[in-house]
Amino acid sequence: MKPNYIFSVISLLGLQGLCAGERLEVYFKPVPFPKTEAEKYALHATQETVVNKERQKIGFSTLMATGERDNGEVYGLLKDREDTPLTLRDGSPYICNGTSNPFGSGAGLDHVSLLQRNGTLYMVSQFECQVGAYYINELEQDAQGGLSPKPGTLRYISQKEEFGGYVHCAGMKTPWESHLGSEEYPPDAKLRQKDGSIDLYYDFIADYWGGDLALANPYYYGWVPELSIGAQGEAAYTKHYSMGRFSHELAYVMPDRKTVYMSDDGTNVGFFMYVAKRAEDLSEGTLYAAKWEQVSSQEGGSAALSWIELGRAKESEVRAMLDPDHNVSTNDGLGFYDIFEEGMGDGVCQSGYTPINTEAGFECLRVKKGMEKAAAFLETRRYAAMMGATTEFRKGEGITYDASTRTLYFAISEIGRGMEDHAKQGKKDSRYDRGGHNHIRLPYNRCGGVYALTVDDSYKATSMKAELVGQPVKEGFSQGCALDSIANPDNLTFLPYSNILVIGEDSSYHENNTVWAYDTGTKALTSIIMLPKGAEATSPFWYSDINGYGYLVLVTQHPHPKSENRGESSVGVLGPFRGLGR
Fold it and tell me: Residue 530: phi, psi to the nearest 5?
């Protein structure tokens, strides 16, 4: 019997074997929503595609799961500042899988990059726990395009020369074949106590510092890390301090290899752009923050965008503010009150102080003399608000780019709070706009949306409009967002030379998070992967051509312990595809 398809059509130009103007069509067989309890605890992926009239069998194959052992290492095992393995309170290995530690293990494995260097295919993995971790291993590819880990190659990557890692979230493979990562949810340095404590979430970093939080400066965390591979296969790790400090979800590099867009994950946060001084070198550049100039509040809203320059710096300048004596074992860097003065009286700002509203709430601040650069790069979000930029976005997530239409796509997980007009979840509430600019004034949508940003010839985004928004359903339903639309979009990836935008979910409003293929031409939305119950779909990323085969990489993060992975986070690939490369 001929299968019944809901087709997604991809238009691919400039591919080998195609004449100019021809279109390559790709069809996915959709995956139905699971119905039985057993089905809800399993991963389901499309198993059939048609590429340029050629029917292909594809499938989802797991590459590696947290807890697996190889080469004397344990995948996802966290280590302290001496690179000594950490243990949980019961003495078991502290593995960042998102489910094993009831006291605060973080979310688990997040972004995985596949890098082709020195004739070798490497897999770089970053882990989203308060004590962050990086691992690298090699992959083997068989004659049919199947990928598998190469035994004896798993290595732990130390971050101790850069104060350790922290809550590594989304990432990308750069155009120059390096891994660009992130550090999410940095602590509020203003709240630091004498013993180093800030809050329950941040304080788990004490495990890294041997139990002594006084050794840690909150400004050590909230940056963009990069890992590159040298000619002999050695891994080089750094943090790019000149790209600003905030809750980095993702840093996305544009085709000029200089411009980088950066999302900020939280409530009352910003949207940022960095322009490097030199291509393929993110160590020096200029940092900007976006200003939303609203045009419409309809269907997710639209706005013109302008960009406010915050500052220019070399990463060595900013790092010196954190570590003046060049000794990572001593905490001698700046603190919040070295940079700012506060001036609020009777709930209003005193003369000479600037009112702002960010994730820290309503504040009245003044930058101390000569501390403008410190404010711009260590307290990027607060300084952006003081300079007139928009800090009202709610959970900025994935970013990706369609070069053929010069369209940047940006996911907003929830249209709410600061994005509303003196409201929270549609009800009157001024907490998120008091003292702020109230640039964004949109109706509440708990299901979120994906926005399309027009980019000019210099890769600067000039406008922003909702491309696709989720559809809330009435309260009382088991699914809070319609099953045939998105719910809390998270990470995005665009298949080059096509119309296909892949959208991964991180939602409690769909019982099983979904990975969608959205055709930006026809507006068709097709489910291609259903994750196990409890799992988040993190960091999907297209690889069009690895030795003639294409893959969609995806991480299944913190699935329910009843799932087939027994609660372990894992990375896998959908494919192999043929005919997606240039």
Answer: -110, 125
Alpha-carbon radius of gyration of the chain: 23
Are 224 and 282 in contact, with CB atoms under 8 Å apart? Answer: yes
For residue 186, is the peptide bond before it cis, meaning its omega torsion is within 30 degrees of 0? no
Rounded to whole angstroms, how far apart are CA atoms 311 and 207? 34
Asked if the model's pLDDT at residue 324 lies above 60, the reply is: yes
Which range among 294-298, 479-483, 526-530 shows the weakest confidence by mean pLDDT? 479-483
Contact 534, 14 (CB under 8 A): no
Structure tokens at 37: 């309890």
Task: For residue 368, give every residue at least 6 positions away whose Cβ sits within 8 Å of its Cβ, in sequence order, or none.
Answer: 338, 339, 340, 341
Sequence letter at residue 303? A
Predicted local confidence at residue 53, as pLDDT: 82
Tokens 């700046």 belong to 334
Burial profile 407-418: b = 16 or more Cβ within 10 angstroms, e = fewer: bbbbbbbbbbbb
In terms of Cα–Cα distance, which of 234, 116, 223 is closest to 169? Answer: 223
Confidence of residue 564 (pLDDT cuts 50, 70, 90): confident
Beta strands in 171-325 (DSSP E): 172-173, 179-180, 224-229, 235-240, 248-253, 259-264, 267-269, 271-278, 281-296, 302-314
| Residue 505, amino acid | E
Q: What is the DSSP string of 277-311?
A: EETTEEEEEEEEEEEEEEEE-GGG-EEEEEEEEEE
Nearest Cα neighbor of 366 from 379, 353, 384, 351 is 353
Residue 238 tokens read as 């750094």
Q: Which two tokens stand for residue 507?
A: 């939602």
d(CA 292, CA 271): 10
Place of tokens 């996911």: 411
Question: Angle CA(6)–CA(398)–CA(102) in degrees, nearest 5?
Answer: 100
Provide the β-strand partners of residue 573.
61, 553
Instruction: Report the 10 Å Cβ neighbour count for 210.
Output: 12
- DSSP assigned state of 475: T
Within 354-475, residue ranges assigned H as helices are: 372-378, 380-386
Distance CA 397, CA 529 (A): 20
Give the CA angle between residues 10, 11, 12 to the nearest 5°: 110
Q: Is the CA virtual torsion 324, 238, 208, 111 positive or negative?
A: positive
Give the integer Cα–Cα distance in Å for 544 and 579.
Answer: 8
Choose among 360, 578, 404: nearest CA to 494: 404
pLDDT value at position 519? 93
**Nearest C-alpha neighbor of 59 from the set 515, 517, 565, 575:** 575
Which is nearest to 453 in space by CA: 525, 405, 496?
Answer: 405
Q: Rounded to 5 degrees, what are φ and ψ at 213? A: -65, -20
pTM of this prediction exceeds 0.85: yes
3-state secondary structure of 148: strand
Q: What is the pLDDT of residues 411-441, one digit of tens each?
A: 999 999 999 999 999 999 999 999 999 999 9
- 339 in helix, strand or coil? helix
